Amino acid sequence: MDDQQITIARNYLVGSRGRLVLDAMPYRGAAQVLTVDEADPRIPVYVGDSASGGTALATGTATSIGRVSTAAGTDQKLASVMELASAAGFATGVVSSTSITDATPAAFVAHIDQRYCQGPSSMELVDKTHPQYSTNCSKDYKSRGGRGSVAEQIAESGLDLILGGGLRDFDQPVEQGSGTTVLDLARQNGFSIIRNRSDLASIRGQDRTIGLFSDGIMPVKLRGSGGAIAEFVQREDGRVLWPEPFACEDNPEFADVPTLAEMTGAALRRLDGPRGFVLMVESASIDDQAHYWRTCGHIGEVGQLDEALALALDYAATHPETLILVTADHGHAAQLIPETSELAPQEHASPGRFARIRTPEGGIMGVNYSTNDSPDWEEHSGVQVPVYAAGPGVRALPPFMHQVDVFGIMLKHLGLGTGTAGTH
Amino acid sequence: MDDQQITIARNYLVGSRGRLVLDAMPYRGAAQVLTVDEADPRIPVYVGDSASGGTALATGTATSIGRVSTAAGTDQKLASVMELASAAGFATGVVSSTSITDATPAAFVAHIDQRYCQGPSSMELVDKTHPQYSTNCSKDYKSRGGRGSVAEQIAESGLDLILGGGLRDFDQPVEQGSGTTVLDLARQNGFSIIRNRSDLASIRGQDRTIGLFSDGIMPVKLRGSGGAIAEFVQREDGRVLWPEPFACEDNPEFADVPTLAEMTGAALRRLDGPRGFVLMVESASIDDQAHYWRTCGHIGEVGQLDEALALALDYAATHPETLILVTADHGHAAQLIPETSELAPQEHASPGRFARIRTPEGGIMGVNYSTNDSPDWEEHSGVQVPVYAAGPGVRALPPFMHQVDVFGIMLKHLGLGTGTAGTH
Q: What pLDDT is recorded for position A139?
């Protein structure tokens, strides 16, 4: 997310004169994102993906698009904050509303050449169907001495708690023809597997748990009224037919899964203790919903982030040594623009997808998605992303940083590093 | 400007691993912009213009699009920070790289129903040619007992220094058929008029000066190589013909006018003194160049802002009671996106205007303008805008505010108010 998604969500959820929980954070800065070219890592690439962004945050190193905590060009494994913290005795957890094998959570747990090598079967698929990717899964097969898919690496990881979607990447054989599934592998490594919202309450003190609450991405909280999304603006005889404004409504599918706040609450209860802990929580579908022109979708997922943050701040209120950082892996396509063209509303409108959203406070927001004419998705943005922080020393953080510096801030707080900038 | 224009400029001017002067400011937050409907000011409007944004900053009140320091619906005159400061004995100045009659500088000096009532002749033009505007100039004619055009109000103002473009709004009769020009009016009010870069050095201690260095908007610093700008992406047989990357070059017209930094330096020399002062400096054409798809143009104008800021910081280093605020009236269309589509580069590209910019550090930036299909301009964005600050107490400023709160921050620093939020 970037400031666009935050502003759009604020206007809808609390009104233009209101404040999100996020807005009350004592520190806010901006982080320059940076990705590098796979073939020549000296060449900067200005727009990244969740893999390169997640890797920058988790490891403090700029890498190429698609890479998960491995170095551009060399495939060198990059140590993540979770591994360093775990080795130093901290409890560790990852929560995400997407598949927990997706790039951002994966960057905190796994190391792989190509983000879409999410489960054993998807490794073969990636190599067959996406030869254009700058990296592939070929070196990562376990049968070839590799580290295996992201799901296999999660199953064999040392984390204490992992909650999210992505069951399908685990509920499959570790290798074609094998009788052992990735779930079996996880159980052999000491994980309990939970699959229902009601199981969250049963997570016990020392259990190591993987929670998988949906096959892939978890359902989101809000949708456009009757499923409305942004669409290409229609014209008739050279005149713009402005789309009807719509409001947001609850997504019925959302009722069956735990909320991000419920998963966060369960994680805080599980990880709390004298060892201290590191927890990464991702409201993942702000990205996904913006890719697919679902304005109410990304509004609701900023809302989920805000609710999870409120819980974290409640925890920190009684545990003042807690550092909370909120940031993004990359910016996105959605843009808040006039709800009808200011200059020539009869003749001109966005050439891309456009939604008019009726807000509870009585206004109409124009939200534009116009980064390509693809039927498949919108592009990311390379805009600097917000960094919010609460906790010890946050007012001394610099207002501008590079995304890789977030890693150093975490390490310094954990007493595991100098807090200097990452390598980039 | 918003974080998009800043990131695009940083990548070009200092590189993705570099830092602008702006990036070294000790405080950075974000401000929610807010505009209201002219017919019913209770209804929020989520995307504003330079008039409503300038008014929010200058007066602490949210108004409707097009209004310059007058209240939506009622036309009530709203007191500006310059007027309050001047009445309290502070020296006052306004510097802008656009016409000094344009909406943002005007909001600090004048009060008018409609921003385009910039000079006596443009008042008639607005009312004849733009009946769709929600406000007009009809009540503001001097002959009808009004306050006159923006140029006339500047000429009759109490400011000490005004530097920028916009000569054409002053070099004309105050009323049709009259032998008195607006320049005459200004001279009668004690202003010296300067028109050349070399005159800047001659501004003396107590002179009150209006500097007009171009007919309208001042020429900008950079342009695309050979004049290149973003254009609609061409397709042939269903395949995308990606535009050739281009670099930026000096705009030859820029050599004849003072830079924003030169005007800022002259203003600081003139206004410095025991009375203290308030100075508003605007790098105005970040907006203008983004409206017209001129990527190198807005990159260069962020650069001009950065150079002017460096001078202000130098001044503050020896005058530590100085408060420096850097913010924007509204966000804009330009978006940093992948330089070729990530998913399907042969088939899909932006449906809007798109430029590929070759950066000095060896990368290529994709910059997208796709808010409407108009041949005339791009739209603004309603995204929250950055607020940077340096000076006494800035680390205690809240990371999130509303745009109208900037007015309160200025007043508090000047000892003229409580520093509470403006009315909105």
A: 87
The CA–CA distances, whole Å, from A80 to A37, A54, A73, A278, B133 equal: 21, 10, 18, 12, 56
Question: What values do phi and psi take at A201, rounded to 5?
Answer: -70, -20
Let me know if B50 is a catalytic residue: yes
**Of B35, B33, B84, nearest to B59 (Cα)?**
B84
CA–CA distance, B149 with B211 (Å, rounded to integer): 18
Higher pLDDT, B1 or A395: B1
Interfacial B residues in 397-416 facing A (CB < 8 Å):
399-400, 402
C-alpha span between A146 and A80 (Å, rounded): 18
- Superfamily of domain B3-414 in the CATH hierarchy: Alkaline Phosphatase, subunit A (3.40.720.10)
Q: What is the pLDDT of residue B423?
A: 43
Shortest Cα distance, chain B CAs vs residue A223, angstroms: 21
B227: tokens are: 């004049």
The alpha-carbon gap from A62 to the nearest alpha carbon of chain B, in Å, equals 11
Give the distance, in angstroms, between the CA of residue B156 and the centroid of all CA atoms in the same chain. 22
- Would you place residue B418 in the very low, low, confident or very high pLDDT band (cuts 50, 70, 90)? low
Chain B residues 208-227 with CB within 8 Å of chain A:
none
Interface of B with A in 56-115 (CB under 8 A): 65
DSSP 8-state class, residue B107: H
Query: What residues of B are in contact with residue A368 (Cβ under 8 Å)?
Result: 370-371
Structure tokens at B45: 């409007």
How many Å apart are CA A423 and CA B78, to the nearest integer?
A: 51
pTM: 0.97
Q: Is A316 exposed, middle or buried (0-12, 13-18, 19+ CB in 10 A)?
A: middle
Q: Collect all residues of chain A within an 8 Å Cβ-Cβ radius of residue B11.
A: 44, 46, 382
Residues B185-196 pLDDT 10s: 999 999 999 999
Q: What is the mean pLDDT of each successive set of 10 residues along chain A, which is 424 residues long? A: 98 98 97 96 97 98 97 96 97 98 98 94 82 82 91 98 98 87 97 96 90 98 98 95 97 96 98 97 98 98 98 98 98 97 86 98 98 94 98 95 98 81 44
Residue B333, min C-alpha distance to chain A (Å): 8
Q: CA A302 to CA A171: how far, in whole Å?
A: 30
The rounded distance, in Å, linking the Cα atoms of B341 and B319 is 50
Length of chain A: 424
Which one-letter amino acid corresponds to residue A33?
V
Q: Is B341 on the interface with A (CB under 8 A)?
A: yes
At residue B175, the pLDDT reads: 80
- What percent of chain B is predicted at pLDDT more than 90? 87
> Which of A7, A333, A399 is nearest residue B25 as measured by Cβ atoms?
A399
Name chain A contacts of B366, Cβ cutoff 8 Å: 46-47
- What 8-state DSSP symbol labels residue B308? H
- Which residues lie across from A388 on neighbouring strands? A28, A326
